[in-house]
Amino acid sequence: MSHAHHDHSDDHDCGHDHSHDHAHDHEQPAGPVWRRFLLAALLVLAMLATACFVQVRTGEATVVTRFGNPARVLIEPGLAWRWPVPFEATVPVDLRLRTTSSGLQDVGTKDGLRIIVQAYIAWQVSADPQSIQRFMRAVQNQPDEAARQIRTLVGSALETSASGFELADLVNVDASRVRIDAFEQRLREQIARQLADTYGVSVVQVGIERLTLPKVTLEATVDRMRAERETIATERTAEGKRKAAEIRSAAERDARILEAEAGVKAADIQAQSQVQAAQIYAKAYAGAPELYNLLRSLDTLDNLVNPGTRLVLRTDAAPFRVLVDGPPAPTVSRAGREHE
């Protein structure tokens, strides 16, 4: 009996210890569970905070929409706050520079000729809230769709702009007459305002990428250039002839002046020589009259006879007599005879 009681007591004690240990096991995890709930709450708050912040990248703008409608536009790079989805969402808008080509367009010039021209346009969405919202409304923030519509607009503007210029203003051998810059400026004026008002796009640059001529226009251009060259050649030839005539006239005038001056000088020299000859003759006659007569006879012969002259004259008559008789013997003056 005693042993049985003892076993029963042991069993009771064991049961008591087992229930105590079980209660202790239930009380032990209370602290870690609280910490887990706190950690979960912090994670949820962190996720909510992260969802409420948006990063605006460089070269982009961010449109914050509230229930699908644009509420505000964020332009400055950095972090900004917004309500979490589904209250507010963000849409990035690319503000980087883009280029679009019009493709080859067959357009007519002012003088009725056809040209094939291709232009390019460098554009970007303007960095202001109104322009960004216009871009979203016009093309739903689709740059490719914007490029397609811009390409169509540039093609129409090329036709309008080309009609204000003649072909010689765009294709010419004379570089000073080419007005490509004015053509590009006219094209830019045609599209800049419409792109800004409709699409919120600013035009950075417009240029002519390619310009070619159809066969008919090319032939007409070659004919025009040939005619221009011929006109220029004719003008230059006429100018050369005019200058040559002026030079020839000036040379003839100078020659006449020089000839006249030379004639005056020759006449002056001849007169002086005649005076000197007369003086010499006078001295010769005074000193030797016979020698004077001989020299005068020779001068007369020199003036009368030339290589083509034939004369039949008596040789015993003057002045040919001197050829037969020779010079007369010198005579002695009376004073000399008296001296002897």
Automatic annotation (TrEMBL):
Subcellular location(s): the record lists:
Membrane
Topologically, how does it sit relative to the membrane?
Single-pass membrane protein
> Example GO biological process term?
proteolysis
Report the InterPro entries cross-referenced here: Band_7, Band_7/SPFH_dom_sf, HflC
Region Disordered, annotated ranges? 1-27
Query: GO molecular function, one example?
Result: peptidase activity
- What stretches pass through the bilayer? 37-56
Give start-end ranges for the coiled-coil region(s): none
Keywords per UniProt: Hydrolase, Membrane, Protease, Transmembrane, Transmembrane helix
List each copy of the Band domain by range. Answer: 51-225
Q: Where is composition skewed (Basic and acidic residues) in this entry? A: 7-27
Which Pfam families does its entry note?
Band_7 (PF01145)
Biological function:
HflC and HflK could regulate a protease.
* Family to which this protein belongs: Belongs to the band 7/mec-2 family. HflC subfamily.
Instruction: Kindly provide the name given to this protein in its UniProt entry.
Output: Protein HflC
From what organism does this protein derive? Pseudomonas ulcerans
